[in-house]
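Final report, section 2: Outcomes. Of the targets proposed, PHF7 protein is the one most frequently requested by collaborating groups, and we therefore present its record in full.
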Amino acid sequence: QCPLCRDREEFCVEMFLMGIRIPFRQPTWEENDAFADLGDRHSRCNARECLYPGGREEAEEEGPWELLLCSSCAAEGTHRHCSGLRKSIRSWECDSCAGLGTGMRQS
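The predicted structure is given below as tokens.
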């Protein structure tokens, strides 16, 4: 369909006249749940040394074993205790986003 007016019929006719072929099926990557992982939230501790007895893949809802995700990229996480974060700390940045000591690691 036309991205501006959303007309489907006239748009397809015009594209055909210009030599642009539009397939009448969904893209194949949408058939196989290729984007299913995009909805998954990061769920592991990326601290150099994870101290949680349950391992990197486990966390608790709150307390020292709460998993905080990087407030900038959300691609890395840490248990509060593994990075020495106090209970009052609500956000955290990974080394990549903070620039290894150059950014604000805790706030």
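The beta strands are 67-69, 77-79.
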